[in-house]
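User: Could you check the structure of this?
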Amino acid sequence: MRVKCVICDKINRIDNDCPQAKKLRNRLIHTYMCPTCDERIAQNTLKRHQTGNFRLFKQKEVGDLYI
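Assistant: Sure, the predicted structure tokens are below.
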């Protein structure tokens, strides 16, 4: 299966039977990122975590009214 990276527009080939190919075919919301872009984003995210200015906003949990 031919796939295109959403960031760098590089075209790669992945196996048709791999789980990632099945996700891309069946769920249109999923997008493909090449391994180099994926690694670069992971490194940048870790750098932001280490600065201390990175916050993950958690969703408020709605309590069940019937408990």
